[in-house]
Every structure is written in C-alpha cells, then in structure tokens.
Specification:
Layout lengths: L1 E5 L2 H18 L4 E4 L6 H14 L7 E4 L1 E3 L10 H8 L11 E2 L8 H14 L4 E4 L21 E4 L2 H7 L12 E4 L2 H5 L3 E6 L5 H9 L17 E6 L22
Parallel strand pairs: 1-10, 2-3, 2-6, 3-5, 6-9, 9-10
Antiparallel strand pairs: 4-8, 7-8
Helix pairs in contact: 1-2
The protein binds 6-O-phosphono-beta-D-fructofuranose (F6P).
6-O-phosphono-beta-D-fructofuranose binds next to helix 5.
C-alpha cells in the first residue's frame, strides 16, 4: 500500500484530483469508480478546477458509483444521484449517459443488482475512489460475518444511519436500505484510491490498514489488493505506527 499523509486538506484534495486527472489524460476512455459522502466533495471541487485549468476532457470517460439509497429518486437532494450531478457531473464535460449509479428505485432490486454487475464485468474499473465509514464500511458494505461479492441490497447499520443523518432533516428520514457494489466488485478495480480524513476515523484507519483482514472491517480487505493508494490527513493517520507494518513512511506528505 502506498500511504500518503497530508498536513493540509486542500493538498490532499489536489493530490486525489491529480491522480484522477492524470488517468483521464493518459487514458481518455478510462472507467472511474466514484464515491459519495463528505470525503470526496473537496476532491471533486479540485478535479473540476484541474480539468478547467488543464483542459482535461471527460467526454469518453465512463463512471460507476458505489452505492445509492433505496427509495430516493434522483431528484431527491439526499440521493447520491443528485449529489453526483451537483458536485461533479454538471461541472465537467462528461455525457450523462456514461454515468451510472445503482438504482435505488428499481421495481426489482435484485434484477437491477445483477444488471449492474454485468455492466461492471464488461467495463473494468481503472480507478476506484473510496471513502471509509466509521465502522470500516466501504461503499455500503457493512461489517458482517460474511460479505457479498457482487452488487446487492444492504440493510444499513444504525451507526451508519446516525452518521449520515447530518445530511437529512431527521434520523427518521435516513433510508434503512441501500444498493451497494460488493467488495468483490470493488477489489476488481485495477487501482484503488482510499481517502480518509478526521480524528474520528483514526481508529478505523488503523484497523483497516494494519489490523487483521476480517469481514468485521470490510476495508481491511483492501490489504489484499495489489495497487492501493491511501491519502490521509494527519488526524486520520494519527494512530498509525510511524514506519510500521502498514507500509507507510511517516508524513510522506504532500507530493
Ligand atoms: O465521507 P463520509 O461522509 O465520512 O462517508 C464515508 C463513507 O460513507 C458512505 O458515504 C456511505 O455511508 C460511503 O460511500 C463513504 O465511503
């Protein structure tokens, strides 16, 4: 794992945006796996700026998002479809028919999941952006005795609903279910970019990067992937042993 630690959150955003922009330049028809939540907001802002400054085109890029709430229409401000349009798609030149998210409104969710997996199979993700939940979830793959490889419907942990309630008017409005790519699909990406910020995630960062590989912490499965880049702010990295077994040079810092 290539772990980079940043003193400055804007530099972290720029570093993540740089990786995505460089991929789009080197491979104009690249397939991106995208994430939502608070973590990528600054990354998308920085990517939009970089794309404008360096004339990076997304016209031939295809994107697949990790997850979506069940029961929220794309025009619902809390849906991840709305989030992606607001924070990225409406501000770059990507054709919307090349952007894909799980459909949490599908009449037959299981059939939709199978279809999403077929799409992911035929378009291998070049770079998968990931955030990290406090309980170690990636996408909406919650800790469990067993994890699911493919796209599936998941019942959200109460802790996840509570963490995400800040985006809704009340906890009651947070959907109880979501559709998420499975860990198998996530691990199939050629390269993974995990981004984590904040002291409140220091413990789970330590578990994910240097703890045992276990379904109790789905992000720990990333240790099995050959090409993972991790961008952390110094608070999120605060419990990692300097130069320890997570393969990290302390404060590799801003590139
Ligand atoms: O960036 P945040 O808002 O802390 O969310 C972290 C994780 O939670 C999710 O948004 C799902 O709850 C993930 O997609 C994300 O990786």
């Amino acid at each position: 794992m290539d772990i980079r630690i940043f003193e400055d959150n804007q530099e972290l955003d720029q570093a993540a945006a740089r990786l995505i922009a460089d991929l789009a330049k080197a491979k104009p028809d690249a397939v991106l796996g995208l994430a939502t939540g608070s973590t990528p907001v600054g990354i998308y802002r920085s990517l939009i700026e970089t794309a404008a400054a360096e004339r990076v085109s997304f016209k031939r890029i295809t994107t697949y998002n990790l997850d979506e709430y069940v029961g929220l229409t794309p025009d619902n401000e809390q849906s991840y479809a709305y989030y992606m349009n607001q924070h990225l798609f409406s501000k770059i030149d990507i054709p919307l028919n090349q952007t894909f998210l799980p459909d949490g409104m599908a009449d037959d969710l299981d059939a939709f999941c199978a279809k999403y997996d077929r799409m992911l199979e035929s378009a291998r993700v070049d770079l998968q952006l990931l955030g990290l939940g406090h309980n170690g979830h990636i996408g909406f793959n919650e800790p469990d005795r067993e994890l699911t490889a493919g796209t599936h419907v998941v019942t959200l942990d109460e802790a996840t609903r509570e963490a995400n309630a800040r985006f809704f008017a009340s906890l009651d409005e947070v959907p109880k279910q979501a559709v998420t790519m499975g860990v198998g699909s996530i691990l199939k990406a050629a390269r993974i970019l995990l981004v984590v910020r904040g002291a409140d995630k220091a413990e789970v960062v330590k578990r994910a990067l240097s703890g045992p590989v276990t379904t109790d912490c789905p992000a720990s499965l990333l240790q099995l992937h050959a090409d993972v880049t991790v961008l952390l702010d110094k608070e999120a990295a605060s419990l990692l042993a300097p130069g320890g077994n997570q393969g990290c040079s302390p404060f590799a810092s801003a590139m």
